[in-house]
Design a protein that fits this description.
Elements: E1 2-3, E2 12-15, E3 19-29, E4 37-44, E5 50-56, E6 60-63, E7 67-77, E8 80-85, E9 91-94, H1 96-99, E10 111-117, E11 120-125, E12 129-137, E13 150-155, E14 160-164, E15 172-176, E16 182-185
Antiparallel strand pairs: 1-6, 2-3, 2-6, 3-4, 4-5, 7-8, 7-10, 8-9, 10-11, 12-13, 12-15, 13-14, 15-16
Length: 186
């Protein structure tokens, strides 16, 4: 148990019948008139839905213990993705629903951070940028290079993103795993 005065970004709370919510941002407000309160933006851990919630200052909230472990993606087993704990070499199956969009940028032997609560994987975080090979993209036309346009490119993982016209098939590029944006050549 903690109070709303102890809230920090990233803290996971148990609210509404044991549902897990992660604190995205919070603000202590002391109005000139009336009691102080805490205005928060919280994100549902499983669905990703973000909600604004206000608590009275000093209200007790239940916190959840979330174990974050660095793991390495090993292979895909049917639908599930299998990760290996880099310390204990324990293997862990993660369903695609938990992985979500992160699966688009998950490379073989790639590092990831898995957040777990009571033995259940809540979410998977990849590094902010990954270096990935362009599997296929159409060639850019000679006159199009100065326009700053983009074209679709299929990555080695099967994901499709927009890249500048000068990128060619087989090139290694940097991609932001949060947004799927092209960042530059690797």
């Amino acid at each position: 148990m903690a109070t709303t005065n102890d809230l920090k970004n990233g803290m996971v709370l148990k609210l509404d019948n044991g549902e897990l919510w992660s604190v995205v941002e919070f603000q202590h407000v002391k109005p000139g008139k009336g009691p102080a309160f805490v205005r928060t933006k919280i994100k549902h851990v499983k669905s990703g839905k973000i909600v604004d919630k206000t608590f009275n200052a000093g209200t007790k909230v239940e916190t959840a213990t979330v174990d974050k472990r660095d793991m390495q993606f090993s292979y895909k087993d049917g639908e599930d993705y299998v990760f290996m704990d880099t310390q204990s070499y324990e293997m862990l199956n993660v369903p695609p629903a938990v992985l979500g969009k992160a699966a688009d940028f998950l490379l073989d032997n790639g590092q990831a951070m898995l957040a777990m609560h009571e033995g259940q994987v809540l979410y998977v975080e990849l590094p902010v940028t990954v270096e990935i090979v362009v599997k296929h993209t159409d060639p850019g036309l000679q006159g199009d290079r100065s326009t700053g346009g983009t074209k679709p490119a299929t990555l080695e993982t099967g994901a499709e993103i927009k890249v500048p016209l000068f990128i060619t098939t087989g090139e290694k590029i940097k991609v932001d795993t949060r947004t799927g944006d092209y960042l530059g050549r690797a």
